[in-house]
Specification:
Elements (H helix, E strand, L loop, with lengths): L1 H26 L21 E4 L6 H6 L6 E5 L2 E5 L3 E3 L4 E5 L3 E5 L8 E4 L9 E12 L21 E4 L1 E12 L6 E4 L3 E3 L1
Parallel strand pairs: 1-2, 2-5, 3-6, 4-7, 5-8, 6-8, 7-9, 8-10, 9-11, 10-12
């Protein structure tokens, strides 16, 4: 009888410890940074959601207007022709597409469709905790004039160009017709999933 009581007590303690660990990991004040997060977990905090085109016509405008803590840009299904590449130069940003969201580079733009991180020739600023999911990215290769950006020769016309980034997760993204590469990672990036 005392063994049954002991086992029951042990089960209660283990269950309590398990839920305490989950609570600490999900709400213990860590902003989702890369420290101590070496697994390919799928989520980290995204405190606000901005919706394109309901609240912002352009994806870049939503990114620029995001609070300093970061957030999610939710892109509704539709066709988005962009005349300038999308640039993510801040941490804790998620771009989440609704099924059927297509981003296409306009003719003669000659930039990456999405640039994540610094566009400096020699990057010195690191960003982290970026997630891009559920998008179709069309680089419009046949209608680009060159393989590099004319004002930044070191930036190539990739579908997604990643420079000095920690903890990037790309899921369910279809990249095609980029003039240069699909996803290109450079400049001391870490934890790219």
């Amino acid at each position: 009888r005392s063994i049954k009581k002991f086992n029951c007590l042990l089960l209660i303690i283990v269950t309590f410890a398990y839920f305490a660990i989950i609570a600490c990991n999900n709400g213990g004040g860590d902003s989702g940074g890369s420290s101590g997060n070496n697994g390919a977990e799928d989520e980290y905090p995204t405190p606000s959601m901005l919706v394109v085109p309901d609240e912002y016509l352009q994806i870049q405008d939503a990114i620029n207007d995001m609070p300093q803590i970061g957030g999610t840009v939710y892109v509704r299904a539709g066709f988005y022709l962009i005349d300038q590449g999308i640039h993510i130069m801040r941490s804790n940003v998620t771009i989440l597409g609704e099924q059927g969201a297509v981003i296409k580079l306009a003719d003669g733009v000659n930039q990456p469709v999405i640039l994540i991180g610094s566009d400096a020739q020699t990057p010195s600023t690191r960003i982290e905790n970026i997630k891009i999911s559920n998008l179709e990215i069309d680089g419009n290769m046949d209608n680009q004039d060159r393989e590099t950006d004319p004002t930044r020769e070191w930036i190539r016309n990739n579908g997604i160009d990643v420079r000095m980034v920690n903890n990037l997760r790309i899921t369910e993204v279809d990249i095609h017709s980029a003039r240069s590469g699909g996803i290109v990672v450079s400049w001391d990036c870490h934890q790219i999933f």
